[in-house]
Design a protein that fits this description.
Blueprint lengths: L7 E3 L7 E2 L12 E3 L1 H12 L4 H8 L3 H21 L3 E3 L4 E3 L14 H4 L6
Parallel strand pairs: 1-5, 3-4
Antiparallel strand pairs: 2-4
InterPro entries: RNA_pol_sigma_r3/r4-like, UPF0251
Protein name: UPF0251 protein NSA23_04155
Family: Belongs to the UPF0251 family.
Length: 120
């Protein structure tokens, strides 16, 4: 029996969920799906400048998992840019930070950072 997949911790949902070329001649069937956890990996490594080890700690998974997720996410973003495909951010195996204490247990940031997001 395979080990159950561990859900990745995500601190916030993306504000924008669809990207693509300005001409609307493309069919949405040609779109690429970037999962929420792949988005969070790109956000933490490329936007916040964290190392893969730090990203893994924040998302509560192994560094090797982050390396694999990050590699797959970069390929999807590159495919979207190079081939002019629509990139949609949705789905994935993730859990949102628990904000009951008004402080994220993963990143330590306060409610102002996460307040606009719905919590499960």
């Amino acid at each position: 029996m395979a080990r159950p997949r561990k859900r990745r911790r995500v601190c916030s949902m993306p504000n924008f969920k669809m990207f693509g070329p300005l001409n609307n001649s493309l069919d949405e069937k040609e779109s690429i799906i970037l999962t929420i956890d792949e988005y969070e990996t790109i956000r933490l490594i490329d936007w916040e400048g964290l190392e893969q080890e730090q990203c893994a700690e924040r998302m509560d998974v192994a560094r090797s998992t982050i390396q694999r997720v990050y590699s797959e996410a970069k390929k999807k973003v590159a495919d979207s840019i190079v081939n002019g495909k629509i990139l949609r951010i949705e789905g994935g195996d993730y859990i949102l930070c628990n904000m009951e204490n008004k402080k994220c247990p993963s990143c330590g940031k306060g409610y102002h950072r996460h307040g606009r997001n719905k919590q499960f």
